[in-house]
TrEMBL record:
Residues 77-89, 159-176 have a biased composition (Low complexity). The lineage of its organism: unclassified sequences, metagenomes, organismal metagenomes. This is Uncharacterized protein. GO terms for cellular component: extracellular matrix; extracellular space. Pfam families: Collagen. Residues 55-74 have a biased composition (Polar residues).
Length: 570
């Protein structure tokens, strides 16, 4: 048994009675639009894998061991003979044949049939049936006798119009009648604000005004009900009206405490407060602008909700700017800031965002998230995660990013290629190269805001010489680096310096028959740049000085990398 899903389908199937007599059926209506396509069937099961992999070919034979060199003279050990050549590698085993392709999975179930399209328009009405024949007329009854009418006399001729008589004298004015009653009577009254009023009024009736009302004084009603309008009135300064969506409209709204107190101004360009601006809701707090930007400007801006979410949504950009502080607090539910374009949060003093019991999410789908503060940026959540999500970049413009009282690593690298030319010999220290390390001065000249952010930086130093001559095998080889600012102040590393340089005896390396041999060295150390604090940008960039001492002349090409990583103190 089948059932119709809709009443229209039921009628179209002609499963109902039609007791009316109608003319011939009209032509068929235009077919209705087809129903939506049904859901796609499930994907068939994947066929079995191909055949097993072929076995590995046998290993090649080991090469013949080279002959041992002849023994040298007594007392001197002869050189070890060269190692025999490695035997040829065995041939690779034949690759196994590819397994047969698995059978195609059975076709998924057919999707659900879409809903029947709308019923076509009703056909034109059939032609009217033929009118039945007229019945026979009944016999007419006998007419009674009519009395005789008397003859009408002839109308006489109209006489000529007489002459108009003279106007009579005006009568005396009658006595004045009594004055009628009026609903307007003198009265006194108190307004909602407690002020007294004296004038005329009406009691027990409504006053209807079908037109404009000019009021040159104040209005002191119990309430003011405004009828929704499609558009606002024209020709007035800052009119107050309600649109068809029920929103109260005005070009400018000022919320003020007293005549000179702190105020909040709502304009087409944003929300501005001359003092603290606080918006509090016990349920959800939502600021939404699907087309234009949302701007919150003031001295101190606070958005608080104790019972639900804080939601700020904008179709373009969200700008929150405060000269004192920006505070966004959600005690019990998530805090979500979402923007389809650039999101900018700026605090000239500090920026604090706190979520006590739920995640804090900053999401920007199509552009970057930029957080800028000249002081601190604080993102705090007591029990859950902090999520920063951007379709492009996440930019934190701050001197330090700290976690659990530790500064996050900030690393800078100097990578260069140059030459060494050491000529002093006799184990005398010589400045053989001076590199230039360009660094953001704020990380060095600004005072760390917390004690666990140190002025000490870890050094990772590596240098590799090639196409070089001399140096290899020198037992008097030593080296160190130091840093020099633009005022010629020297910053000396802790482990390796002019007093205790890096000293090592290098054996010759013939790796890959390199000629001349490769020659490399390096170390880890740290240096304190406390002397740069408070000096601004004038003492940077830093110079990196490389000193070398050796027994013999050392020349050649080199590549080096010097890395500086901020530490949490030692």
């Amino acid at each position: 048994m089948s059932y119709s899903r809709t009443y229209s389908e039921y009628l179209g199937a002609r499963r109902c009675c039609n007791s009316s007599s109608a003319g011939a059926q009209g032509p068929q209506g235009v077919p209705g639009a087809g129903g939506p396509i049904g859901f796609q069937g499930l994907t068939g099961a994947t066929g079995p894998s191909g055949g097993a992999q072929g076995s590995t070919g046998p290993q090649g034979l080991q090469g013949v061991t080279g002959t041992t060199g002849s023994q040298g003279l007594q007392g001197v050990t002869g050189a070890t003979g060269a190692t025999g050549a490695t035997g040829a590698q065995g041939a690779t085993g034949t690759t196994g044949s590819v397994g047969m392709t698995g059978a195609t999975g059975s076709q998924g179930l057919q999707g659900v049939t879409g809903a029947t399209g709308a019923q076509g328009a009703t056909g034109a009405q059939g032609a009217t049936g033929t009118t039945g024949s007229v019945g026979m007329t009944g016999a007419t009854g006998a007419t009674g006798a009519t009395g005789s009418t008397g003859a009408t006399g002839a109308t006489g001729a109209t006489g000529a119009t007489g002459a108009t008589g003279s106007t009579g004298a005006t009568g005396a004015t009658g006595a004045k009648g009594a004055t009628g009653g009026s609903p307007w009577i003198p009265m006194n009254g108190l307004g909602i604000t407690g002020g007294g009023y004296t004038g005329i009024g009406v009691t027990g009736q409504d006053v209807l005004i079908y037109g404009n009302l000019l009021v040159t004084g104040g209005i002191d009603p119990i309430y003011l009900a405004l009828s929704p309008q499609a558009v606002g009135p024209t020709g007035f300064v800052n009119p107050l009206w309600v649109d068809n969506s029920g929103f109260l409209r005005s070009e400018k709204i000022l919320l003020q405490s007293g005549n000179t107190g702190i105020n909040c101004s709502l304009t087409p360009y944003g929300m501005t407060g001359s003092g603290p601006l606080t918006i509090t809701a016990t349920e959800a707090l939502t600021l939404s602008s699907p087309i234009q930007a949302i701007n919150l400007n003031g001295d101190s801006i606070s958005l608080n909700t104790t019972g639900n979410n804080i939601g700020i949504n904008s179709g373009t950009s969200i700008n929150i700017i405060a000269t004192d502080g920006v505070y966004l607090t959600a005690s019990n539910d998530p805090m979500t800031l979402t923007s389809a374009s650039l999101m900018t949060i700026t605090g000239n003093d500090g920026l604090t965002m706190t979520a006590n019991n739920n995640p804090m999410t900053l999401s920007c789908v199509g552009a970057a998230i930029v957080m800028t503060a000249s002081d601190d940026i604080g993102l705090t959540t007591a029990l859950d995660a902090i999520n920063l999500s951007a379709g492009l970049n996440i930019n934190l413009n701050a001197l330090n990013v700290n976690s659990y009282n530790y500064a996050m690593p900030i690393c800078f690298d100097l990578v260069e290629t140059s030459t060494i030319n050491y000529t002093l010999v006799g184990q005398q220290m010589e400045l053989v190269y001076q590199g230039t390390f360009s660094l953001p001065y704020q990380f060095f000249s600004d005072t760390p805001l917390v004690s666990y952010t140190s002025t000490r930086w870890k050094i990772d130093f590596q240098i590799n010489c090639y196409n070089s001559s001399g140096g290899q095998g020198d037992k008097g080889f030593a080296s160190y680096i130091d840093f020099e600012d633009q005022s010629t102040n020297i910053y000396t590393p802790f482990l390796f310096n002019a007093t205790t340089p890096f000293a090592r005896f290098f054996n010759t390396s013939s790796y890959n028959q390199a000629s001349p041999s490769l020659f490399s060295w390096g170390w880890s150390d740290f240096v304190d740049f406390a002397g740069l604090v408070g000096t601004g940008s004038g003492n940077l960039p830093l110079k990196v000085n490389l000193y070398v001492a050796a027994d013999n002349v050392l020349t050649g090409d080199f590549k080096w990398k010097v890395s500086l990583t901020r530490t949490n103190g030692l």
